[in-house]
Amino acid sequence: SSYGVLDIGKCKEGKPVYISLPHFLHASPDVSEPIEGLHPNEDEHRTYLDVEPITGFTLQFAKRLQVNILVKPARKIEALKNLKRPYIVPILWLNETGTIGDEKAEMFKTQVTGKIKLLGMVEMALLGIGVVM
């Protein structure tokens, strides 16, 4: 069975619309192999979110999505009458990325990381005082 594509036709009044990762990254071969010119690449086509683990602050992200349609053989349409079977065909792909800027990174470093380091020093000082007592 096919994987790596999501049928969103019910959200689009029954139109044969599918979404996937660009270039059918991680899709089953029966979806990607019939389409020429695809070059799936993990670095260029994956979706990710890099989050600072202590604060949950987003450092960078990439949201990538491909919109596809299902094309079926049709005897009355010249371009489609010789198709052997239905194909999912890419129409476009979207790439939205963001990275924390230098100014925000510096603010994050001084205000957040600095306080975390200060907290660690206070913890050690309290531990030292506790040992002395």
From TrEMBL:
Protein name per Swiss-Prot or TrEMBL: Platelet glycoprotein 4
Keyword annotations from UniProtKB, A to Z: Cell adhesion, Cell membrane, Disulfide bond, Glycoprotein, Golgi apparatus, Isopeptide bond, Lipid transport, Lipoprotein, Membrane, Palmitate, Receptor, Transmembrane, Transmembrane helix, Transport, Ubl conjugation
Gene that encodes it: Cd36
Entry GO terms, CC: apical plasma membrane; Golgi apparatus; membrane raft
Signal peptide: none
UniProt keyword Transport present: yes
Principal location class: membrane
Catalytic activity: hexadecanoate(out) = hexadecanoate(in); (9Z,12Z)-octadecadienoate(out) = (9Z,12Z)-octadecadienoate(in); tetradecanoate(out) = tetradecanoate(in); (9Z)-octadecenoate(out) = (9Z)-octadecenoate(in)
Domain of life: Eukaryota
Membrane topology: Multi-pass membrane protein
Subcellular localization(s) per the UniProt record: Apical cell membrane; Cell membrane; Golgi apparatus; Membrane raft
GO biological process, one term: cell adhesion
Family to which the UniProt record says this protein belongs: Belongs to the CD36 family.
